[in-house]
Design brief:
The chain is an alpha/beta fold. The protein is built from eight helices and nine strands. The strands form four sheets. Strands 3-6-7 form a three-stranded parallel sheet. Strands 1-2 form a two-stranded antiparallel sheet. A hairpin with a 2-residue loop joins strand 1 and strand 2.
Length: 205
């Protein structure tokens, strides 16, 4: 996603995406939810509305009213409030209102705001890294269900990175084991724990 220097090539939908450019990735309808929600994922001193809508405004000109034939743009506060409230309801974000600041929420609710921010972009391909790290069991279940629902209802491919095998098995269709920066193998999520164990051990030297 261009956050860290990378090599190789990336191709999506038959087109090559330039490396090391977050804007190019976002323009190609890719989105990313980082495990580091406080440093990368959120604008902690801003409201939930601003967090959910900001990226979509900047990248896609969403939630904006245009005047003078498009020469002047202004925030559509009503649309921003509506989309934020939609995700507050869908993701069951515990907050006082859509105007509450992100830093005032619990870790689990902050993670849900990160998801809402990505969902608002309406990506065609979504990466999520350790989406349930550091949040309680109840919030974990809601986050994973939200990802499955987003995948099913919008037809969006979701790639989830996690160190929790059982979490992956209950959420994903296929699981790739990565070792030393290379894919050691790909198995159906329904395969036994023994099969995954053997694949992991085979990479240990």
């Amino acid at each position: 996603m261009g956050l860290y220097s990378a090599g190789g090539t990336v191709e999506f939908d038959g087109k090559e995406i330039p490396l090391n450019s977050p804007r190019k990735c976002l323009d190609a309808s890719l989105a990313f939810v980082s495990e580091d929600r406080r440093d990368v994922g959120l604008l902690l001193d801003e409201t939930l509305e601003w967090n959910v809508a900001f990226s979509a405004m900047q990248i896609q000109d969403k939630f904006l009213k245009k005047y003078l034939g498009g020469l002047v743009s202004w925030r559509d506060e009503k649309a921003i409030r509506e989309v934020t409230q939609k995700y507050i309801d869908e993701l069951m974000i515990k907050c006082t209102s859509s105007q509450q600041k992100a830093k005032e929420l619990s870790g689990g609710n902050q993670q849900k705001v990160c998801l809402a921010k990505a969902f608002a972009l309406e990506p065609r391909f979504l990466f999520v890294s350790e989406p349930t790290r550091g949040i309680d069991v109840g919030a974990k279940s809601l986050v994973l269900e939200a990802l499955k629902k987003f995948n099913k209802e919008h037809g969006v491919t979701v790639v989830m990175i996690s160190s929790e095998l059982e979490e992956l098995r209950t959420t994903c269709d296929r699981i790739a084991i990565v070792s030393g920066g290379k894919i050691a193998g790909i198995l159906p999520a329904t395969d036994s724990s023994e099969e995954f164990g053997l694949l992991m051990v085979s990479q240990v030297k």
